[in-house]
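Technical note accompanying the year-one report. For the benefit of new consortium partners, we illustrate the data format agreed upon in the data management plan: each record pairs a sequence with a structure-token string. No post-processing was applied to the example shown here.
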Amino acid sequence: MKTFSMTDVGKVRKINQDYVFTTDKPLGYFPNLFVVADGMGGHKAGDFASKFTVQVLERELKNSQEDDIERSMLSAIKTANGELIAKAAEDEHLAGMGTTIVVATVIDHMIYFANVGDSRLYLINRGITQLTKDHSLVEEMVRLGGIKPEEAKHHPDKNIITRAIGAKENVEIDFFEHRLKKDDIILMCTDGLTNMVEDEEIFHLVQGGRDIVESTQMLIEAAKENGGTDNIGVVMIEPCLGEVSIC
């Protein structure tokens, strides 16, 4: 398996509130872990929220005795949510902070992943498919038929999210599993990329790179060239899938 991750502050923001984490070493029952988080809040609160949440996840999964991947992942996210809320209550400078999150692990031919917010996980092969669902106001409007999908991209309320870690005690988490095929590439990213670069352009940039390192760099440069109005966080995973087993 090959992985690469990178964040960039972009061209407008002064603080980078995006935080990414990758490891191909086991964490408890997880053989690997990949996380993207996009923090929100006042000065320093957003970057604290994203980093703190990922650190709690890492700790919880490392120490977990639960061998069921879904239960373990959801339990760790819920614990991180509760601890982030507690931290915000302790310090007025951290009040109102929160973060999106996408968490994934690859086991054999399967990827198991969960998300809260509008950071995304894509599958790229002969095309590009978003496997997560955005928890955002405009996505809800699309689902209810209020606006068309093509209108959502530039809607004035596109940055309003309906779920976040740290927002409320009973956090709603989406969990998915997907069977991987040969030549699949996994892209996890914050909206600093997807608000600046269309899905089709993302696909062509990933396919055009010599490897996932160059592809990641090209994605971030494209986001900045198109305005770079937000921080950009990217994780790319290239599972090594043979005909029978993962290598």
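Partners are asked to follow this layout when depositing records. The mean pLDDT is 93.
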